[in-house]
Specification:
This protein has 167 residues and is an alpha+beta fold. The protein has one domain. Helix content is 33%, strand content 34%. The N and C termini lie far apart (96 Å).
């Protein structure tokens, strides 16, 4: 007899269905893992870039402008970004809403973090050890998770300390 029995057809369909379910489960798992990795990468990249910018500006600053520097805002006197006919200018780092912003004197603030993250915490601590002032910066950034799914949440806390080089 040529042909398949009903039992052979049922077993073949069952094996095919099992393989199909395994492949689909693998693809769904891979997609979820990719989304989690993307959220984590976006969070860490934003935090790292923002912190590197702050540290770079601290190292190049002339002095810390203490009248407007608080635990949540850093004001620096610098010789970069000079307006015409000026010998020094001021830049500020602060939270504007849920973004970390840099404001140069006489200009609008520029967000240093993207809309895909929110800055949960920003603190500046002045450290006076000898003649060279230093600033400890702590930054916590959370991924904006519109779906609310806990699997796609991500947070990064970075801390660094920098000294003024031109002091």
């Amino acid at each position: 007899m040529n042909g398949f029995t009903i039992l052979e057809i049922i077993v073949s369909i069952a094996i095919f269905s099992l393989v199909l379910v395994l492949v689909i489960s693998f693809l769904i798992s891979t997609n979820a893992s990719d989304s989690k990795t993307k959220a984590s990468r976006e969070t860490i990249d934003n935090a790292r870039t923002a912190l590197e910018t702050i540290i770079y500006e601290i190292r190049g600053a002339k002095s810390i402008y203490t009248p407007t520097t608080t635990a949540n805002q850093l004001s620096l006197e610098t010789t970069k970004y000079l307006p015409q006919d000026e010998t020094s200018t001021f830049i500020d780092f602060f939270l504007c809403g849920t973004a970390l912003c840099l404001k140069k004197e006489s200009q609008d603030p520029i967000a240093l973090t993207s809309d895909s993250v929110q800055v949960a915490s920003l603190t500046f601590l002045q450290i006076l050890n000898g003649a060279t002032p230093s600033i400890k910066v702590s930054l916590t950034v959370n991924y904006v998770n519109p779906s609310g799914d806990i699997n796609y949440s991500s947070s990064a806390t970075l801390t660094s300390t920098a000294s003024l080089r031109s002091y």
